[in-house]
């Protein structure tokens, strides 16, 4: 069977290898000169490609994800990675290649594609039509196939190639696209937070829309001149609209900060507030907070009235950051939204157009940081590639 895969990213490469191993005549059409360009950026250049804890709680979509992310399919991913020679390095359940470089995942996939003599065409697909066969128009020619796998990626990090065309083409072919939003992306504020830029600190963050609680995460945050980033913040970014409040606890390890400061003040004599707290709160952050609530840097705890003491504790444990949006698709590691899962079979085949398969970020599946999004790409690639009817 003639199979064309549009997009040689994570899911497309796996689909191509799986399909070719079953004896098909496989072509990948990839607009970049390199296959798997985005893969090289993943996991800060180390590629966190899988996770021991594949609980569905780590995926956001309420509906239908278990049809794809389940033990049978996870097993196929492990067998696949073993078959291309990847040895994992597992840290806190997160899988990286033992080499600790994303290049080895990308290169192992490329080498297998070369070994299997899969045809790779470096052209940009601009249109698709379905007659008896699929007719694929690129910037340089026209291709035909019996089975088409669409692996163009979503619309996050467009500089790696995934610019959203997949959704336009699928919509034209009759698919419903759940609205796309950036996910796993830093958050922006309209407050002047330039002075906290560069601080990394452990936090608990609670996202609100008005008075409505939306989501809570904990971990290390990176404070930036535009707002806030870090895995815990990115994990709740898919819920952000234009006007949210992020309530930040900068001292999550202390249950009652007021009592804690009182105790330290009794024990450690003649200390300023900064000296009392700098072993648990970054001193630059303490300067930032004190300035914001108009307390001098050299103030002592005893010199504050009750109201100022409460204000200090509140700013450190209940800091309300006005969020005006995310850094957008350009900086999103993934997206929320995509092709409605009701419109594809358990093998990722379109229910609207037989022999059309949809993989990876094009599907309405997104997970938190930790290898969950790549796992979706691997599974959907394998399922689309192995369905050989
Ligand atoms: C900075 C960053 C870090 C990340 N880190 C991780 C991580 O550690 N763990 C994790 O699980 N996930 C991570 N992700 C998410 C993960 O990379 C994606 O979920 C995954 O790559 C999606 O796979 P895909 O096959 O759907 O799309 P992609 O990998 O984006 O591949 C799509 C391919 O299609 C090609 N294409 C697009 N349009 C056309 C066209 N018109 N013609 C021809 N070709 C086309 C593109 O050039 C691209 O090569 C990260 C993402 C980013 C941006």
Can you tell me about this structure?
It is a single chain. This protein is α+β, with helices and mostly antiparallel strands. It contains 11 helices and 19 strands. It has helices at 10-21, 42-45, 71-83, 102-115, 165-172, 231-236, 257-267, 273-277, 283-292, 306-317, 372-386; strands spanning 2-6, 25-29, 50-51, 88-91, 94-97, 119-121, 125-130, 134-138, 142-145, 147-150, 177-183, 187-189, 200-209, 212-223, 227-229, 244-249, 319-326, 334-339, 356-358. The chain has a 6-stranded antiparallel barrel with strand order 12-15-14-13-16-17. A 5-stranded parallel β-sheet has the order 6-2-1-10-19, with helices on one face. Strands 3-5-4 form a 3-stranded antiparallel β-sheet. A hairpin with a 3-residue loop joins strand 14 and strand 15 (227-229). Helix 1 (10-21) runs parallel beside helix 4 and helix 1 (10-21) runs parallel beside helix 11 (372-386). It binds flavin-adenine dinucleotide (FAD). Flavin-adenine dinucleotide binds at residues 6-12, 29-32, 37-38, 41-43, 47-48, 124-125, 151-153, 156-157, 160-162, 165, 333-334, 360-361, 371-374, 377.
**Whole-number mean pLDDT:** 96
Order of helices and strands: EHEHEHEEHEEEEEHEEEEEHEHHHHEEEH
Please, what is the oligomeric state? single chain
Shape: elongated
Helix-and-strand structural type: alpha+beta
Distance between the termini: 10 Å
How many structurally independent domains?
A: 2
CATH architecture of the largest domain: 3-Layer(bba) Sandwich
Any idea of the CATH class of the largest domain? Alpha Beta
Counting DSSP E segments of at least 2 residues, the number of strands comes to 19
The CATH homologous superfamily name of the largest domain equals FAD/NAD(P)-binding domain
Number of helices: 11
Percent helix, as a range, is 25-40%
Widest beta sheet: strand line-up: 12-15-14-13-16-17
The small molecules bound here are: flavin-adenine dinucleotide
Radius of gyration: 25 Å
- CATH fold-level topology of the largest domain: FAD/NAD(P)-binding domain
